[in-house]
Amino acid sequence: MRVGSRSWARARGGTLAAVAAQRARDEQGPELVGQVLLYPPIDPAAQTESKERYREGPILTGAAADQCWGRYVPAAGDRESALAVPSKAESLAGLAPALVLTVELDPSRDEAEAYGRALRDAGVPTQIVRIPGLIHAALNMSGCVPRTSELTDAIVAFLAPRFASAARSVSQA
Fold first, then answer.
1. Contact predicate 137/165, CB 8 Å
2. Which residues contact residue 84 at a Cβ distance below 8 angstroms, ignoring those fewer than 6 apart?
3. Which of 1, 13, 89, 103 is most buried when burial is the number of CB atoms within 10 A of its CB?
4. Could you give all domains of the chain from N- to C-terminal order, each with its CATH number?
5. Which residues, 6+ apart, have CB-to-CB distance to 98 below 8 Å?
6. Cβ proximity of 24 and 32 under 8 Å
7. How many CA atoms lie within 13 A of 21 on its CB side?
8. What are the helix (H) ranges across 1-137?
9. From CA 81, how far away is CA 7, in angstroms rounded?
10. Rounded distance between C-alpha atoms, residue 135 and residue 129, angstroms
11. pLDDT for position 109
12. Cis before residue 74, ω within 30 degrees of 0?
């Protein structure tokens, strides 16, 4: 499977993080303290209300999202692989705890939240947090959109206790 250019891969950070967590589980490490999935596009074939509602944006349109998927995974047949589409995994059990962070005005919102519910249903400790009124890629605009602090605050609140616990475990070893 060929994955597209790095610039497009960066746009798929949440997707890549979800796949990396699955690989860490399946390949016996590294042990992860958590996974932060920031407005991740999960499945190009997902038919959701948010994809329909926000197909013309703001910021991310349906056409742009399709183009991103086409560059991320150029061969349509590869989109059946869990290495590209994390929701295609045979099992989600045993993954690291997850924070699925979505924003209201985003075509990928509903598929990301559905993935979070699937993680929870598989027994993975999962927090699903939707930030109202923000758009896809809002964090990239943190210099001019003060409310992006809600995203970073949620990430810090999720990761801080996990890193502290991991640090205690290492110091006691």
1. no
2. 1, 3, 15, 19, 72, 73, 78
3. 103
4. 6-172 (3.40.50.1820)
5. 21, 34, 35, 36, 37, 116, 119, 124, 125, 126, 127
6. yes
7. 26
8. 6-11, 13-26, 49-53, 62-72, 109-121
9. 21
10. 14
11. 94
12. no
Render each residue's pLDDT in the chain as its tens digit; 173 residues.
333 333 333 447 888 899 999 999 999 989 999 999 999 989 888 899 999 998 888 888 888 888 888 888 888 787 888 888 999 999 999 999 999 999 999 999 999 999 999 999 999 999 999 999 998 888 888 888 889 899 999 999 999 999 998 778 777 76
In the block, tokens 């038919």 appear at 47
Q: How many residues does the chain have?
A: 173
Q: Sign of the CA dihedral 17, 22, 25, 27? A: negative
| Token pair for 77 | 């047949």
- What's 97-134 look like in SS3? CEEEEEEEECCCHHHHHHHHHHHHHCCCCEEEEEEEEE
Residue 57, classified by CB atoms within 10 Å of its CB into exposed (0-12), middle (13-18) or buried (19+), is: middle
Residue with tokens 């985003």: 106
CA distances, 58 to each of 52, 61, 90, 135, 137 (Å): 12, 7, 34, 7, 10
What is the rounded distance in angstroms from the CA atom of residue 104 to the CA atom of residue 110?
A: 9
